[in-house]
Amino acid sequence: MDSLTVQLVRHADGSVDVDGSTASFEAALSDFVAQSETEQSTIAATVNAQFDKHPGTAIKLPNLASMTCAALNAQPVNYTRLEGLALSYVRANASEKREDGKLFRIGRGKGSGVRRWSEIPTEAPASK
What we know:
- By secondary structure, this protein is mostly helical.
- The chain has a domain at 39-119.
- The chain is built from three helices and two strands; from the N terminus they run H-H-H-E-E.
- A two-stranded antiparallel ribbon has the order 1-2.
- Helix 1 (18-53) packs across helix 2 (61-71).
- The longest helix has 36 residues, at 18-53.
- The radius of gyration is 21 Å and the shape is elongated.
- The termini are far apart.
C-alpha cells in the first residue's frame, strides 16, 4: 500500500493551522498523483516496447515482467516494486475477449503467454 507523509502546519502559538495543513496535504497529494501517473506511463511504454522488440510473440507473464525490469534498469532495492507494477499493468489491461477493448490477452497452458490483441489475427467467420 502506498502512503503519504504530510507535515502539519502550526501557528506561532503551536496550534494547528488547518488551512495551511490542508494546503500542505493538497500539494503533497498532487505531487504523489503526478509521480504515480508518470510511473504508470513509463511502465506502459516499457511493457509495450518489449512487444515491439518481439512482434507477434507470446511472452510468459513472469518473463515479460523480468524483461520490463531489465529495460528499466531495475536495482535490487526497487526490482520487486517494478516487477509488481509491470504485472499489475498487464493484468489490468488484459482480457480473454478481443471485444472488451483491452490491450493484451493472457493465454493459459502450454505454449501460451501474453500477446497484444493487435498482433493476434482475427478469425474468419465460419461459412454456412
